[in-house]
Amino acid sequence: MSGRRRSYVPPQARALAATLRVDIESGAWKGDQVYTQVQLCARYGASEFHVYEAVRQLRAQGVVETRSGVGVRPTSADRSWTVPGGVRLATHVGQVIRDRITSRVYPAGEPLPPLRVLVREFEVSRSVIWESTKPLKADGLLLRHPFLGYVVAARHPDSPLASQSPTEQGGPSCIPCP
Asked: What one-character-per-residue DSSP string does 122-166 give?
C-alpha cells in the first residue's frame, strides 16, 4: 500500500460537510457571513467534533477558510484571510495601503479612513494597522494631523502636486509623523 493513509471521517461529519457545501452554493450561507464553531453547532444541531471535521474537510477542498479566534466563512475570489506566502500580515496591509496611495484611491492631502474602518476592512487588530503604517510614515507617504489622524502626504514622489506646498494645494496643515 503506497501513499498517505486516509483518516477516518465519521458519516455525520461527511453529511454536515455536504449540507454546508449546499448552503454555500445555494447562497443560504453568504460569503460575508462568519460563523464560529459554536454557532455552527447550534445552527445545524451537530457536535463540536462533527463541525470541526466537516470544516476541516471543506477547508482542505478550498470551500471555506478559517481564522483562529474569528470563525469560518466561504472562500471568495475577491477577498481572503490568507496573506501571500511568507509575508507578514502588517507588511501585506501596508502594501495594500501604499498601492491605494500611489493609485490615488487615497488622494494626496486627504485623511486615511478612520482606524476602526481599516480594522474592519482588513479584519485585523489595531496594532496591525499601526504597524503597517510605520514604513509609510518613514517614506513620507503619511503625515500626522492633530485632528484628522493620518493624512496622505501631498508631496509624495508619485503626486502631480509634488512641486506645491500643502498650503498652496489647499490641503490640511500637517505636522511630520513622529
From this structure: HT--HHHHHHHHHHHHHTTSEEEETTTEEEE-TT-TT-TTTTS-H
